[in-house]
Amino acid sequence: MTRIDIIAGARPNFMKIASIIRALEARGPDKRLGYRLVHTGQHYDARMSGDFFAQLGIPEPHVNLEVGSGTQASQAAAIMVGYEALLSGSRSDLCLVVGDVTSTMACAIAAQKLCVPVAHVEAGIRSGDWRMPEEINRMVTDAITDLFFTTSETANANLRRAGVQEDRIHFVGNTMIDTLLFNWDRLRAPAFWQALGLADGGYFVLTLHRPANVDMPEGLGAWLRTIGTAARGLPVVFPVHPRTAKTLRAIGALPENLRPVEPQPYFEFNYLVRHAKAVMTDSGGITEETTVMGVPCLTLRDTTERPETITMGTNELIGTDPSKLKDALDRVFDGRWKTGRVPERWDGRTGERIVSVLERVL
After folding, report:
1. Using CA atoms, how far apart are residues 322 and 270, in angstroms rounded to an integer?
2. CA distance 104 to 75
């Protein structure tokens, strides 16, 4: 049996591997492809990983490298050392990486150094902003990838311009949307729903974790004060990323309508998003989910690697200047936000397409 290593290291990865594992398992006892789930431990907090494994039905990892926290370089190095040792002792036929986190790049490098081919799910997406660590991860990973699985024609075009041969590009869709649609009826209100007085369409969701937005108290404080005012008194539910929490403690008093909460499990977080008046975020993946849900999304960045969420979906780039936010939220309040549509092949069947390609190629 051919064996694939499926790499997961951080919260976004777990949403992206769930449907691939489900499609592999659905092949039954006669399946030609086996897999080994490798958790690098990049996210080691149960709120950031363990809850997701349980809710999304992802099996316990076969291997956990347990790299823990650290700088970009130290984390990447620890992952490469750990994964190299794993492959040296027990080789697989393919390393499948997803997304653009440190684990994705590090495992791709370690695999190729040992002549293990690499498949990249979510290949070809680009923001053009080299200040983002994720952009470097994407570019390095795609430079050494053998099989490219893409979410959009924009990603396909990016890869063609980089010289990737057409027969190595497979336009399959979006596995994050597979996971959302598969779990649509399982989404549930968080325990604090009533305590915070939340109601359908009567609150905002905010997520912030990019270094440029959260690493300095002055910058984060400016965003939070502006958001508190522009939300017109509506609650702003703010699941606080561990990185953001460090800076938040140095800010002092927060706007009265800001509701900081712990990072939420998958079901609860997406319930919040689905029923929000709008979402404000510096995440990329959330912009895809809001596009499918039809929820207005305001991205607090200057660039995006997911342009289809803007050209087709409900997302808009607000930029990194807090003063630009009020006008955008006024359009939300006035009912003048655009109506989006779902991009091609974001239909819940991406995992099946990926496994079909792997069966054919391997």
Report:
1. 25
2. 12
Parallel, antiparallel or unpaired: strands 204-207 and 169-171: unpaired
Query: Token digits for 259?
Result: 């509701």
d(CA 17, CA 4): 12
pLDDT tens digits for range 169-188: 999 999 999 999 999 999 99
Q: Answer whether residue 50 shows pLDDT above 70.
A: no
- Closest to 205 in 3D by CA, of 250, 268, 132: 268
pLDDT of amino acid 313: 98
Dihedral over alpha carbons 280, 139, 246, 81 (to 10 degrees):
140
**111-132: pLDDT as tens digits:** 999 999 999 999 999 999 999 9
Catalytic residue IDs: 209
List the one residue out of 278, 232, 280 whose CA is nearest residue 256. Answer: 232
Q: How far apart are the first and last CA of the chain?
A: 10
192-250 pLDDT tens trace: 999 999 999 999 999 998 888 888 999 999 999 999 999 999 999 999 988 888 899 89
**Dihedral Cα 259, 265, 268, 274, nearest 10 deg:** 90
Query: Tokens at residue 32, please?
Result: 């030609």
Q: Give all domains of the chain, ordered by start, each with its CATH number.
A: 2-174+346-361 (3.40.50.2000), 187-333 (3.40.50.2000)
DSSP run (H or E) holding 26: none
Q: Kindly tell me the number of DSSP H helices and DSSP E strands found in the chain.
A: 15, 13
| φ/ψ of residue 97, rounded to 5 | -115, 155
